[in-house]
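Hi support team,

I'm opening this ticket because the web form for multi-chain structure prediction keeps timing out on my end. I have pasted the exact lines I submitted so you can reproduce it. The total is 988 residues across two entries, so I didn't expect it to be a heavy job. Is there a limit I'm missing, or should I split the entries? Thanks in advance, R.K.
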Amino acid sequence: MRHPPRLPEALLRRCLPFGTVGDSIVGDAREEFAEYVASRGALPRLWYWIHALGIAGPYIREAVMDTLLKDIKFGARSLSKQPGSALISTLILALGIGLSTFMFSLIYGVFFRGLDVPEPDRVAVMAGINTREANQNQVSISAHDYMDYRERLQSFQGLAGYRGGTVNLSDEEGPDRFQGAFVTANTFDVLGVRPVLGRSFAEGDDTPGAAPTVLIGHHVWRDRFGSDPAVVGQSARVNGEMGTIVGVMPEGFKWPSNHDVWVTLDDDPLSRPRGEGGSYQIIGRLADGVSWDQASAEVARVAAQLEQEYPELNEARSARLLTFSESQNGDEITVIFTAMMVAVLLVLLVACANVANLLLARAASRTREAGVRVALGASRTRVMIPFLAEAFVLAAAGAVLGTAMAYWAVGLFDAATAPALTGRPYFMVFQVDAPILAWVVGITALTTLLAGVAPALQMSRTDVSSVLKDESRGSSSLHLGRLSRVLVLAEVALSVALLVGAGLMTKSIVQLRTHELPFDETAYITARAGLFEADYPERADRQEFWDEALRRVRSRAEVADAALSSSVPGDNAGGARIRLDGQVYDEPTDRPITHIQIVSSEYFDLMGATLLEGRGFTASDLQDEDPVVVVNQSFSERFWPGSSALGRRFRTGTADTIPWLTVVGVVSDLQMEGFQPRGSPSSVPDGFYLPFTQSDPSFMNVLARPVSGAPLALAPTLREAIRGLDADLPLYDVKTVATQIYESSWFYQVFGSVFIVFGAAALFMASVGLYGVLSFSVSRRTQEMGIRMALGAGSSQVMKMVLRQGGLQIVFGLLLGLVMAAGVSSAVGALMFEVNPRDPVVFGAVVVVILIVGLAASLVPARRATRVDPMVALRSE
Amino acid sequence: MAPGGFPGELEQMILLAVLRLGGDAYALAVLRELDARAGRRLSRGALYKTLDRMERKGYVRWSQEVATPERGGHPRRLFEVTPEGVEVLRTSRAALERLWAGLDPVFGRPA
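Hello R.K., no limit was hit. The queue was backed up. Here is the completed structure from your submission:
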């Protein structure tokens, strides 16, 4: 082989300087190649490739750095000549990048950050699914199935089961109630998290009947035990049983969601018949070398075995693997965040369209410059680069400002959704850190392209001869005009969509702030307590406890009235499916969903409900009597419209042994649906009440209204009453009903505010964009205007002409935008409180706002057009 | 002192190699000379870039030698050191010698 391979040689030649210098270097390379071949060197082709790369490397590096830096400097300098438009562009991009970064920080925190454990991507949650249901909602996995999975699955290092619950810890200090998780002993091995003090759970701790062993959270150790290391080994009553605290978990660890203490599971599900052993949530760690797909396949296989072995119980049951985040985030939150991400990307698109427009305007005045460069032999790419460089300078400045904005906003959001306020899971961390900054870099590059490519492409298409021949404004500027008009149209459309979203959100927040509950939520205190079977084994014991507790509270002089309730009024009461007497339901899912609440007889009086028909509960509604039920007005109207509900019967559950409930009264609505987003099945206002004397609730809220003064002042009264009955029983969630309501409705406010910001940003951008384009097009047509006016056109005609052009873009943009808005508003429906996603007032208001802004943005350039002096215009160039 | 400051170490080495090679100083010969005399192995790219830079500074110039067939008709550049190049070398050497002077007790006599 005498000649070096052609391709690398040609490439090398391209990288080297023009003329003899480059030629001589290629010659040197040939000479060396010939020597190499002569010396019988191995793989000469490869050798030449490497050799050529070694020669070209420094040239390439220098060329890239040189021209790129030069272009960027040049871009910055040329932008600084028009600081106003550069500043506006930077602001616009900062808004776009800032909002999208903010949103990405939230999405990253909710969906992608995941658990703070070693190798979190090897941790899988096993979720049961019903293969008959299309939406594949997670269903629980029975304890028996868990045991079988644990035995049979080879793909996992360990498979742990747990269930959430309430843990009452009591020692000499008194009782306290914590959010707890009951876990199998291997749970923390699976997670890979060790206690910082004491020991983890060990095999055998979860043997059925063993005394409970407890791990406590770091904050519990600090706040409840004063960071005393002697806590390890200390005994405490755990939900009534004597147990031992064996260790303290690391700071910040609150797995699975917001949990404070962990107790070993000690029940013995296998001692009960299959199907009655309760259920677990299951988490596992993949064994080394096993892929996610392999594990999924094995899980499906074992699930199929179980279905075959236990067809009655496991029919249509299977399981699949989810990441921890996936298992924690429901469809609703996914929809909400997707909608918001789409919204911010729209804002970013608007921003890019705007800046593209401003750059186009600048580019137009430089058509000749580009034409000359092309004529002098510059490649198309070379002509494009300066325009991309300008876009980059703007995007980079916008990114810096936008990141600062995002940093600030993420901090605000983090504070507004603090776990203490909203029960946000501990693994959702919102902060601007490395992954978020990586996003900023990516989005900045994208922005550069989006904002810079249109002008750059336009310029590279410059028709040399027409530009050079044309003394003043080439025909090419007309092309620019068309593209820029399309951009404005798109911008108006996007803004309409976002503004409608923002308008609906504003309405929702106003609605929420002015919403009047059927009762005064600030007048009541609520506190919760729960009885455990270990302490209160008999139903009569529990009944007696609650009776006596309520009697004690009500007997106090400072208490005006009090009642028991299974849920806090104004909060969602909880759902139940019912079967009406005389109706046949083919599928269990055909049974209607409504709300259920268990209350004592004083409840309706206490909350000021109006009795519409029949009676409330009385002391004679006892366990042995026929079960009675009181329904609310909406319930009566939904199921028996136009007729009396009294004497009607329905029942819950699916079994035929469940007794009928007979309606004895109808009361006015007390907002049993709470603040559920519209459209969710539990947002229906209807519901029914069961007398607590005929039910057997373990957990109840004590509600009370003071004779005078702040309701929270009753807290000691309630505590005393409970402690007087059971010194080991903690009272928790002590707060006003108003606080409880904020906790279940905060997201309307927080997310609503976020959306309003999106809308305001979009409005700002649309007006700037419209103004920029129209004023640009007017300035391009100065000469034409002059001629028109010289030929006798009045200033009003000229003005009309300009306004018509702006008006057309606005009207088409509006129409397109309204169509998009319909989509956006449906998507964010879940975030809106009592607002129709098609609210005509909001849609109308947005149309008016856009028209006004559009008119204002067109009016300024239009007035300027009428002031053109024909003589000046005709003489110009 | 030289007007543009002292030449860098690599620049000095290349200038010296070009001078040593007399009329035969084309790029590959310079590489071999540097390897043989100074034990310095240079990448091709670094050599060409340094030569370009020194040409801009006026330390070297080149003339074109007629193309030969084994080079596929590509010309060869013969480098020579300009009087300016010689001057900066001289200045640099003088400065170094002044710095070295009197340090024999530390280093011993060079071989």
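A quick check on our side: Residues 6-58 of chain B form one domain. Let us know if the file doesn't open in your viewer.
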